[in-house]
Amino acid sequence: MLVSDYMSSAPVTVQQEDNYDLAFEIMEKKNMHHLPVVDKENQVVGIVTRRDLQLAARYFKEAPVEIAEVMHTPVYTTSAGAPLASAAKQMNDNRIGCLPVIGDDQHVAGMLTETDLFRALTDLLDA
What we know:
A three-stranded mixed beta sheet has the order 1-2-3. It is globular, with a radius of gyration of 15 Å. It is of the alpha+beta class and 127 residues long. The protein has one domain: CBS-domain (Roll). Helix 1 links the parallel strand 1 and strand 2.
């Protein structure tokens, strides 16, 4: 089993200079919990979670704040060709809920989340 078998392949990203309100709006509309943050070269530089944004909203209130202020770094990543087991171990070892999947061009090619891992587990148990 490879990461590519279970990752979402249409990643949504935000720019590090975007206002955190934009990330929150995207997460609400698409029912997401994690967003990779990219720089101007489309390289992943951080990750922002719904919880990060909820805390930011409480702290910053209506003030305009860039995502770079609330994102997590460093970002753990994986590749589409990596074994799913190693990605799951990396997520467990680092206590994180997702891994951006980086393509050959070093841009975000997808996302692997805890939900994807549960889907893989279900497939294994059903086999």
